[in-house]
């Protein structure tokens, strides 16, 4: 549940970012495609990293064992 | 493969492929050649080919002009030297200075040089005389003191002489002859002469000793130290000297002493014993000294004025001479047409620049009042054009990084497009700490905000590199802040920024927290790593497992991206053999093994199964038909594994065998009617045959192609394993970074805090800051930069990049600041 919601948030942020980039630096179709590619790549990279760390903690096999001094 | 290209498979994207280049031929009439090259240089979009490469530099047409420019450049260097010695700064060049004629410049330079050299020579002479006079003055003063003291003691002695004391010290005895000399003038047979002068202090003892020995002890020498150093006339530098006076008898002794003085560089000056004459000499010398001083000052003033006038025009002349030299070098590359009325130029230029080039040619023809215009035509050739990417200040740094490995072949896919994002991202995976990220962000923001000012200054080597890469570092810092938030590390301290931690004690007493551990009671921590982990005993096993699997997942994704780029290349170059027998087997091989591993990782995480993935993978190969037992992650896993294994094994010969045979067939089909070569290739314009080595028919060695394909296959198959493992460096460096960071925090800062002493605290904070900046911000940054670079250059690019092109180097007047002629 939390996973899907946050994935949707990433998707929405990605779309907003590409729209912003299109609005503020609109310089011809080939350049726009480049900017779009960069934004999509960045979004996918960031999402992947977040998703990996999130999924790894969903069903943990190791639990935190506090150290003695606590 | 000739000039015509594919494309049209996907919409064009900036920076993805090189600009389309064309080989152009320009035919320029002689009178407008110089202006044409000058305007094309201003444009900066044509790379001229050297059509006279077999000629030596002296045989070329414009060798004399280049020599002229070389002479002028030498004079300009001489002026610069003189100006820096006199500390005159050249005036900054304004944007639009009026154009000046090279002949005028040459004449002016010649005149100014002659004048400057003359002034310098005169100055030197005057300075020398001045120094000599200074020395003479010192000699007069000091030697005068000898004589006056001698006179005083001699008059004192005279009173004692009557007492007939034979126990007199040697020098008194010797001094009284002086007095006797004065009174008994001419009737002596043995005349004592004396010489006065200056000798350098370090040689004075040796001087004295040698004089003594040479004259067998028959001299008397006195020396006085001069307190301040004196400027030596011959060398022009300050030296410590002593004034000496040597008394001798006889001509032979005199000549020996003279020679020894010369050998020691001791300057001699005439001195008269007469007190009145001495005083006169001193006043005369003083007078001449002050005269000389004013003359020298006037000379220096005149020289400074001259240097100022040079400084006003210096930059202008400098630029003009360099421009002209570049133009003549380029003109030397053009070939003279047989009728000797025009020059032919060949060069590469981007297709989009055709209009601008034709414009420039027009303007040059008009401005040089030539009757004939220049001709611009495009040649067809089989040569491979240079690669040209139009980059701005943001993308140029990344493009340079990619080019450092190898310049892209003409029109192949440019890895730089994705590197702009993935390089800072992989750096950040290894660097992940949002505190450090903020520090680097501040540093690079400073560089970016002071961009204009720093660009015009001359920075040191390291600063130059950091400044050139400022946008890359900006991206790196932004991504580092992101990954720092995900790893939840702020100078190694975690914060529950987004929600409380998901873990809590099993019961209210928390008795088992240190033995069995906490349990997960709430939802998963929504963004990043749970803050409870830091400092626990099971932190490392958990984090290591997480980061290793993350590295594999990221690595497999990037390698897949690389193989997909090779698909786009194959589509662009319309090579279906590459698609079917390279791209598809490669995808199948990589994904059926390591893609499957990635899927298993995700399934294990999602289901929380206890399966051991090492065993799953290893037994998939060793005993694929065995029962899986507790390593079962999803139903029908065994069948799936068998199928994948089969696909992987089949894809290897698919990569190896078909392609060489198909290429052979294609080659034969292409060159079936080879003996009937079309005739129209020969009546192209004048120089097509001589340009480059365009072979009419390529050689095809089957065995070479086969071996090449074998190497490629082995490299890919073995590389699939080794490259995937290589991505584990993402884990390794991130572990190192977080451990270093936590050590510095706990063992320096917390330790200093624990002493409750302000002094120790301050020292602790200083050590912490220095350690953080030196080790973590500088060393770790460089280290992570290097490893991310390696991952791109090797693991990503060897999937698709050939990188054997050459870079477009247009003729342009934008000189670097320290370019030598």
From TrEMBL, chain A:
The UniProt record lists the keyword Cytoplasm: no
Protein name (database record): V-type proton ATPase subunit e1
Gene that this sequence comes from: LOC104761561
Organism: Camelina sativa
Stretch forming the signal peptide: 1-17
Alphabetical list of PANTHER family matching this protein: V-TYPE PROTON ATPASE SUBUNIT E1 (PTHR12263:SF15), VACUOLAR ATP SYNTHASE SUBUNIT H (PTHR12263)
Family statement: Belongs to the V-ATPase e1/e2 subunit family.
Pfam families in the record: ATP_synt_H
Localization of this protein: Membrane
Cited InterPro entries: ATPase_V0-cplx_e1/e2_su
TrEMBL record, chain B:
Localization terms from the record: Membrane
Family assignment from sequence similarity: Belongs to the V-ATPase 116 kDa subunit family.
Keywords: Coiled coil, Hydrogen ion transport, Ion transport, Membrane, Transmembrane, Transmembrane helix, Transport
Keyword Transferase: no
Organism: Camelina sativa (False flax)
Main location: membrane
Purpose of the protein: Essential component of the vacuolar proton pump (V-ATPase), a multimeric enzyme that catalyzes the translocation of protons across the membranes. Required for assembly and activity of the V-ATPase.
Coiled coil regions in record: 102-136
Full protein name: V-type proton ATPase subunit a
Listed Pfam families: V_ATPase_I
Transmembrane segments: 425-449, 470-487, 550-568, 580-603, 639-657, 758-779
Membrane topology summary: Multi-pass membrane protein
UniProt entry tagged with the keyword Plastid: no
Organism lineage: Eukaryota, Viridiplantae, Streptophyta, Embryophyta, Tracheophyta
Matches recorded under PANTHER family: V-TYPE PROTON ATPASE SUBUNIT A3, VACUOLAR PROTON ATPASES
